[in-house]
Amino acid sequence: MIMPEVDNLAPCGIYCPGCIVYKASDNEKLAEKLAENMGVDSDDVHCDGCRAEEGKIDFLSMESKCETYKCVEEKGLEFCSKCEDFPCSRLYTFRNSPQPHNSKMMNLTLMDKKGLDWLMDNIEELTELYYFGDKPHGGDKLEL
């Protein structure tokens, strides 16, 4: 069973509180801006996170559970990185995403390398670095 403190880490490695849709759930101004940009009603801009929503985010017009979520669920895994097929094409970035999805590969890799406890202890700072870190070049090292 997954530890309660990691409920906001999706099976694919996305840290839900770092996502603009998740943030908009508790931020009316952000919800209105996001709704305007996506052509939906601001009352519909809501997500409690992948695990809480059981892999189906209604706001994103998903007709069924996320294929990645279903895969992990069917295999009885907590995270994609625990799969013998990791990494697979289900983890590719998809178009029109409200966030850069390559954060999931970084999080899954760090979790496997340094441990789940280390990742959760550092996830807020990692998310801040990921979205707002200032690196002069793409290959420059970020220290944590």
UniProtKB/TrEMBL annotation:
This is GON domain-containing protein. It comes from the Archaea. It comes from candidate division MSBL1 archaeon SCGC-AAA259E22. It holds the Pfam family DUF3795. InterPro entries: DUF3795 (IPR024227).
